Structure formats: structure tokens, C-alpha cells
Amino acid sequence: SYVLTQPPSVSVAPGKTARITCGGNNIGTKSVHWYQQRPGQAPVLIIYYDFDRPSWIPERFSGSNSGNTATLTISRVEAGDEAVYFCQVWDSSSEHVVFGGGTKVTVL
Amino acid sequence: QVQLQQTGPGLVKPSETLSLICAVSGHSISSNFHWGWIRQPPGKGLEWIGSIYHSGSTYYNPSLKSRVTISVDTSKNQFSLKLSSVTAADTAVYYCARHSLVHAPFDPWGQGTLVTVSS
Questions:
Q1: What gap in Å lies between CA B86 and CA B15, rounded to an integer?
Q2: Which of A89, B2, B8, B107 could form a disulfide with B26 if both were Cys (CB 3.0 to 4.6 A apart)?
Q3: Which of A38, A97, A104 to mutate to test binding with chain B, by most B CBs within 10 Å of its CB?
Q4: Residue A57, class by beta-carbon neighbours within 10 Å (0-12 exposed, 13-18 middle, 19+ buried)?
Q5: How far apart are CA A56 and CA B13, in angstroms?
Q6: What is the structure's pLDDT at A72?
Q7: How far is CA B10 from CA A16, B70, B94, B101, in A?
Q8: pLDDT digit string (tens) for B38-85?
Q9: Could you give the CA distance from residue B105 to residue A35 in angstroms, rounded to a whole number?
Q10: What does the DSSP 8-state code read for residue B27?
Q11: Is B110 in CB contact (< 8 Å) with chain A?
């Protein structure tokens, strides 16, 4: 079955840029969605179809997808960005939704 | 604005069936959308359980398929999850969510229900 690989954790200083990767075989041919989950809360969609952003999500959040890696970029990181971030795709070969293992972002 | 409200017991005994309901407001469940269930064991990642199309056609995670039933009740504008023969490994927060196509993102999500499997 299709596997998405994310780093368990990323640490970043306030005001800097955080990059969270989501690796998968030819993931560039799939549509990738990203979710933010704060402690005790349900996940919230922040990036869909690789780089689109809901209107209420700050422009600091952006996405890209090519080759074997999709990337969520958080610019000018703020303390409120501390959360776990998950990537997700639809694997058409197995007709199966797949989530990455999640990346915990810590703001130093 | 569409909202999903989950209900169901927070404690289920081993070998019994877990049952949850997701009531949809602000949107007709009979419209051309898919409705899914996702779970998250404590301290772990997200696992898709399965989804149902408004017509009633379903598709499930192969690892859970033999134990899962998802159904729609259009008269009550809600859909439900049943997971049979539960064990402690099924202890998790269960979420319902909407997606417009099989490959579309899940949005919005329900509030989540912690279900503990224990005698």
C-alpha cells in the first residue's frame, strides 16, 4: 500500500521559515492536502490540492509538490503555529485514503 | 455553513460493536458529497476508516474492511459508523468529515469522540 513519510518533528525560531516534507513514491502525480491539528482539537484543512489555501488561512502557509516530495512551508513562524501537521493523498491504485504520520512543529 | 456533530458512547466492551453517528447540519447529506470516518489512537496519527457516497456506495480501508459498516440515513440527515469485534487497539478519537470527491480533502470535520475499549 502507498506510504507517506513525514519527519516526526521540526523546530523553528519565531520569524523564521519552517518546511515540512511529505515523501511518497511519485507523490508529484497525486493531489496532496495538509491539515493542522492543535492539542485536543480536530484537524483543520490548511492547504488543498498541493498549494490552494482556504481564504481564512494566512498567506504565510504555502504548499508545493513535485517528484517524490510534497512540502508545506510556514513563513514568518509564530508561536500560534505550534501544532501537528499531517499530509494526505488519495491512492487511486488501492482506492484508499492515506495520511502521513504527522510532524510536530515546535516554535523555539 | 455545514457542521458535523458526533454522538455515541465513549466506552465499549471488547468484542462488542462500536457505533457512532454524525449528524449533518447546514447541508443536505443527499447532495453530491462523500462522508467519511477517520480515527486517531491516543498520541498517534490519523487513520482513514472509510467513506460513503450520498448514493450509499461505500469504500473502506482494507485493514478494517471486514469489521466496518458505514451507512447513511437521509431522513435524519446523518451517517453512521459501526465497527465490530473491537479490541483495545480500536481505542481512539473518532472523527467524521465531509469530502467532495474521493481525492478531495476532508473539510469540515466533526468534533471528535474518544472511544475507549475496555471491560
A1: 5
A2: B2
A3: A97
A4: middle
A5: 41
A6: 98
A7: 41, 19, 10, 30
A8: 999 999 999 999 999 988 899 999 999 999 999 999 999 999 999 999
A9: 9
A10: S
A11: yes
Q: Quick check: B23 and B77 in contact, CB under 8 A?
A: yes
Instruction: Encode pLDDT of A30-76 as tens digits.
Output: 999 999 999 999 999 999 999 999 999 999 999 999 999 999 999 99
Whether the CB of B57 is below 8 Å from some CB of chain A: the reply is no
How far apart CA B35 and CA B92 sit, in angstroms, is: 19
The grid cell for A14 is 519565531
Straight-line distance from the first to the last Cα atom of chain B, in angstroms, rounded to the nearest whole number: 39
∠ CA A59-A33-A16, nearest 5°, is 40
Nearest to B61 by CA among B25, B26, B37: B37
Q: Using CB atoms, which residue from B105, B108, B111 is nearest to A88?
A: B105
Mean pLDDT of chain B: 96
